[in-house]
């Protein structure tokens, strides 16, 4: 079944002050002209960014190389806006700085896009439209070795908790699901203890655009657990990139992150999770 929908792009995007789109690691030329170029985008709080957030990209990269006709030309972390209204959410300035340190010092291909972080809350569908606009309209896409132009397909990268919320009636607006899963598609990273197949049963309409990536080495590090360690004065080294740990210590972050319920601790065991983009404007907060 063809799941591709007609293009629906926002005609104009309001950019934060002094904003510029990061493209210094975006590969402009395909290595294999038979492949379709894609960019991976992970949306989330990243408070703080952990090794599991970064590891998601590497797991997707292996899956893409071994199982698809795609070629990854770039990867982005897009921290959510402060207007996300999640209790205890660290301000965007610090979260963007930590993500930037993590990407620049641990990866050769990941980048940070601050467009979402420094303005009003933006729905995931609109965030993906923004990436599509910047990469394909402003930058002009990419090229093959022979100089043939190719548009880049933007794809959402997320943990399996996200796909679970998408399968719950009333959590996500149907139009947004159509746009995210129909036009763009997603790579879903398995979370320990969750059943991805069951979560995708009600999303069968878009099954050809949903790629389920197994987590071969189980990792349940989460930002919530890291914040809990920090409040208790416990070490978080080797759970986060060293530069991020140093930044947290230098800026005395997460020393008083507010109360965390047992329910919240149980829910937050993965990466890249995000609220459902509900049509009514009501948000279902998930931790990342």
Notes on the protein architecture:
By secondary structure, this protein is an alpha/beta fold. The protein has one domain: Rossmann fold. Helix content is 33%, strand content 16%. It is built from nine helices and ten strands. The strands form three sheets. It has a six-stranded parallel beta sheet with strand order 3-2-1-6-7-8, with helices on both faces. Strand 7, helix 6 and strand 8 form a beta-alpha-beta unit. It starts with 35 loop residues before the first strand and ends with a strand. 44% of the residues are buried. The N terminus and C terminus are likely disordered.
Q: Which term fits the overall shape?
A: globular
Strand percentage lies at 15-25%
Radius of gyration over all CA atoms, rounded: 18 Å
**Strand order of the biggest β-sheet:** 3-2-1-6-7-8
Number of beta-strand segments: 10
Measured as a percent range, the helix fraction is 25-40%
CATH architecture: 3-Layer(aba) Sandwich
Low-confidence stretches: 1-8, 261-288
H/E element order: EHEHEHEEEHHEHEHHHEE
What is the typical, i.e. mean, pLDDT? Answer: 86
Rounded to the nearest angstrom, the distance between the terminal CA atoms is 33 Å
Structural class: alpha/beta
CATH level 1 name: Alpha Beta
* Whole-number total of structural domains: 1
């Amino acid at each position: 079944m063809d799941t591709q929908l007609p293009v629906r792009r926002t005609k104009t995007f309001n950019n934060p002050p002094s904003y510029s789109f990061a493209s210094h690691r975006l590969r402009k030329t395909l290595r294999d002209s038979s492949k379709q170029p894609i960019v991976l985008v992970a949306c989330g709080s990243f408070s703080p960014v952990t090794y599991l957030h970064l590891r998601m990209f590497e797991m997707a990269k292996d899956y893409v190389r071994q199982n698809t006709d795609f070629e990854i030309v770039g990867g982005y972390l897009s921290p959510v806006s402060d207007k996300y209204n999640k209790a205890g959410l660290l301000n965007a300035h610090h979260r963007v700085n930590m993500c930037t340190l993590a990407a620049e010092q641990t990866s050769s291909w990941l980048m940070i896009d601050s467009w979402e972080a420094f303005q009003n809350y933006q729905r995931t569908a609109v965030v993906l439209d923004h990436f599509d606009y910047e990469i394909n309209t402003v930058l002009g896409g990419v090229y093959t070795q022979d100089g043939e132009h190719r548009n880049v397909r933007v794809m959402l990268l997320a943990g399996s908790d996200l796909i679970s919320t998408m399968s719950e009636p009333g959590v996500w607006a149907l139009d947004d699901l159509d746009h995210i899963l129909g036009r763009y598609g997603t790579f879903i990273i398995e979370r320990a203890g969750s059943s991805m197949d069951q979560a995708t049963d009600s999303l069968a309409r878009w099954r050809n655009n949903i790629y389920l990536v197994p987590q071969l080495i189980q990792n349940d590090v989460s930002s919530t657990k890291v914040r809990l360690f920090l409040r208790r004065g416990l070490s978080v080294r080797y759970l986060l990139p060293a530069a991020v740990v140093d930044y947290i210590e230098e800026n005395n972050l997460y020393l008083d992150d507010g109360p965390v319920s047992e329910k919240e601790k149980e829910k937050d065991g993965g990466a890249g999770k995000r609220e459902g983009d509900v049509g009514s404007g009501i948000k279902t907060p998930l931790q990342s």
